[in-house]
Input
Amino acid sequence: MIAVGRLKSGPEAALFAQHNARLRPPLEVREIPEARGAAVEVRRREGAGLLAALPPGALAIALDLGGHTPGSEGLAALLERWEAGGKPLAFLIGGAEGLDSAVLARAEHRLSLGPMTWPHFLVRGMLAEQLYRAQAIRTGHPYHRAWRP
Ligand SMILES: C[S@@+](CC[C@H](N)C(=O)[O-])C[C@H]1O[C@@H](n2cnc3c(N)ncnc32)[C@H](O)[C@@H]1O
Output
């Protein structure tokens, strides 16, 4: 995971740590400093930082409101397909101003957690939870209860 901002200890950090500790393997987190200035410049500088932190050959997945919104089972299937490609997966999370167009252009996939805008520090924990849920779906672990009325 490559994310804008330094997450200090607090509820968002605890949420992320709780779910990330269950992931096999856990996500490695690279943090990009938040930029200051006009929104366009902030996006540009943070975007450059995100792209520079991408491991070589990574499959980049941008967390973006305009992205594809799979259900949890759909995400589990996507992850299986992405992992089968053999490239390291990199989930990119923007800052308060969102992701620069250069980041969206570089990303192979755009993933949305729904049409609502979430705080970027919360998105880390939400993504880790969905990745853990996807693992539970793939292994048949009862953490995921698929039953709906
Ligand atoms: C506060 S949001 C940025 C809002 C910005 N106006 C935009 O439209 O992207 C900060 C970051 O959290 C992530 N994010 C927030 N809500 C999201 C959602 N519903 N789906 C996917 N990512 C989301 C994105 O990476 C976003 O760049």
Q: What stands out?
A: The chain is about 40% helix and 15% strand.
